[in-house]
Amino acid sequence: MAAIGFQPDVRGSLYPLVYDAVTLHITAFAIDGFFGRILLGIDGLSPAAMMHLRKGLRLLRERLMDNDDEKKISDSTIGTVLKLAVTAHFDGELEASKQHMNGLRKMVDLRGGMKVFDGTKLAVEIMRCDLSIAVLDDTKAVFFSRPSEPIAEYPKRLLGDSRRKKYPNLTSDIEFTQILNADLAVAWQVMRNFCMLVNLGTQTQRLVEPELIHQTMASVTYRLLRMEFATGSIDETSRLGLLAFSYHIFLQWQDMKFAKSQFATRYKDHIMDIIPTNNISPEFVLWLLVAGESAFFKVEDEAWLRKSLRENASRCNVRAWKDMEGILKSIMWIALLDEKHGKDMYNLLQRTD
């Protein structure tokens, strides 16, 4: 998200490290583990990381067993549990990450709910972690999953005329309005308007406000996770595509890809099932494939993906990268984030396997 919007001053987030030993040790553990496992590909924790984890967990348990109720659910304690959830998830420890998030939910509820944290960096990081786990693990979110919990409203400036019956063309001659669920159509149009706003900002050298980015992320992604449609329907195909695209735009970190995640597996299976039906245009299939590649898959590692991309690019009469980019832009695309990667992917497809 840093590429498309202003970044607020986050120096204040460093202050807990100065006076909070729990935060210090858990942060040191998380950083060491991240660099070792994610960036260097080293299995297991270093002795230093284990030391910080043991000390951090011991101090955290002591705090939670203490009589200081205010400190038990302080911002620093919540932030520490959040770091544990993020680290466990990156390490593939699904149950541990869920336990941390459920514990985090109890703390937040004791503070009065997420509304207490509105407009804070902590709220954004809680939602990003919650949504990342929910999407990748193909499960319900911990926050805003109950019908009684209102999800953030869509940004008014992105709604436009999305509630009209006439839905904008996804391609020059195909409309999906008559078969898309009304709520899904609104989410789709909000996200499409967001992309157009970012692309316009790139042309005029104006970054998007962080508040708009965060509100769009929460309002669109949480709603998509709540929606349910029949398997194989255009509604479900569009929901999965928009969820993959939203994950890539708002939640993916440094283009890290989890091709073995539950959602990535489901996404691949769904696409492979719908392609033979010819119920959707090759342009839309091409967009779905590129959205999946951007979020989860490395095209050089996936023979099925290279084959499907080539076949549908040919059906769309794609002869150059500009042709493919034109199709992607007509549906949903942020050039600032993906133009270079898209070109590299297209060039790789021109080689023979």
Provide a descriptive summary of the structure in words.
With 353 residues, the chain is mainly α. The chain folds into 2 domains: 11-136; 156-349. The chain is built from 16 helices and no strands. It has helices spanning 15-19, 21-39, 47-65, 69-72, 75-90, 94-111, 121-136, 156-159, 182-204, 210-226, 234-251, 262-274, 282-295, 303-315, 321-331, 335-349. Helix 5 runs parallel beside helix 7 (121-136), helix 9 (182-204) packs antiparallel against helix 10 (210-226) and helix 12 packs antiparallel against helix 13 (282-295). The radius of gyration is 21 Å and the shape is globular. The protein starts with 14 loop residues before the first helix and ends with a helix. Mean pLDDT is 84; it is low at 8-15 and 162-178.
SSE map:
Blueprint: H1 15-19, H2 21-39, H3 47-65, H4 69-72, H5 75-90, H6 94-111, H7 121-136, H8 156-159, H9 182-204, H10 210-226, H11 234-251, H12 262-274, H13 282-295, H14 303-315, H15 321-331, H16 335-349
Helix pairs in contact: 2-3, 2-5, 5-6, 5-7, 7-10, 7-11, 9-10, 10-11, 11-12, 11-13, 12-13, 13-14, 15-16
Strand content: under 5%
Mean model confidence by pLDDT = 84
- DSSP strand count: 0
For the termini, the CA-CA separation is 34 Å
Determine the number of helices (DSSP H or I, runs of at least 4 residues).
Answer: 16
Report the helical percentage.
55-70%
SSE class: mainly alpha
**Which regions are unreliable across 5 or more consecutive residues at pLDDT < 50?**
8-15, 162-178
The coarse silhouette is: globular
- Radius of gyration (CA) equals 21 Å
Largest sheet properties: none
Number of domains: 2
Helix and strand run: HHHHHHHHHHHHHHHH
